[in-house]
């Protein structure tokens, strides 16, 4: 049973690692808006502030995306290492202990029975 749990843990680690890689290679959702000038200075100033705000939000989203990607990658690889080690350890323990079967004869069974 332990072997199956360890194999499932390794499988979950592989899935998490693939998710982390897919988040890292996903294109960012950053939009850049070109510079415009309007007739009134107020409108131009508001437009520039909005453009810089959009750029800053896009950069923050990219930083968060990379952080989540690296975090998923680290969790997945750690999961693979931990459960892989436990699986290898369980396999070594199962090979180290040979299974012995005691052959019982009818005389052995008769000696174990209480006398009446």
Shape descriptor reads rod-shaped
Instruction: State which percent range the strand residues make up.
Output: under 5%
Distance between the termini: 43 Å
Helical residues, percent: over 70%
Our Rg estimate from Cα atoms comes to 32 Å
N-to-C series of helices and strands: HHH
Number of domain modules: 1
Count of helical regions: 3
Average pLDDT score: 83
| Classification by helices and strands | mainly alpha
Low-confidence runs (pLDDT<50, min 5 residues)? none
Number of strands: 0
Main sheet summary: none
Helices and strands in order:
Blueprint: H1 2-25, H2 41-96, H3 106-112
Helix pairs in contact: 1-2
Notes on the protein architecture:
The protein is mainly α and 116 residues long. The chain is 75% helix and 0% strand. It has helices spanning 2-25, 41-96, 106-112.
The gist of it:
The protein is mostly helical and 116 residues long. The protein has helices at residues 2-25, 41-96, 106-112. The relative contact order is 0.18.
Q: Main traits of this protein?
A:
116 residues, mainly alpha, 3 helices, 0% strand, rod-shaped
């Amino acid at each position: 049973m332990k072997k199956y749990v360890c194999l499932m843990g390794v499988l979950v680690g592989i899935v998490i690692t693939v998710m982390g890689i897919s988040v890292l290679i996903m294109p960012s959702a950053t939009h850049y808006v070109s510079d415009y000038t309007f007739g009134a200075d107020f409108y131009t100033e508001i437009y520039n502030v909005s453009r810089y705000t959009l750029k800053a939000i896009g950069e923050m989203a990219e930083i968060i995306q990379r952080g989540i990607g690296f975090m998923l990658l680290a969790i997945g690889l750690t999961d693979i290492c931990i459960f892989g080690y436990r699986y290898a350890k369980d396999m070594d323990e199962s090979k180290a202990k040979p299974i012995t079967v005691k052959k019982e004869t009818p005389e052995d069974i008769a000696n174990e029975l209480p006398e009446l």
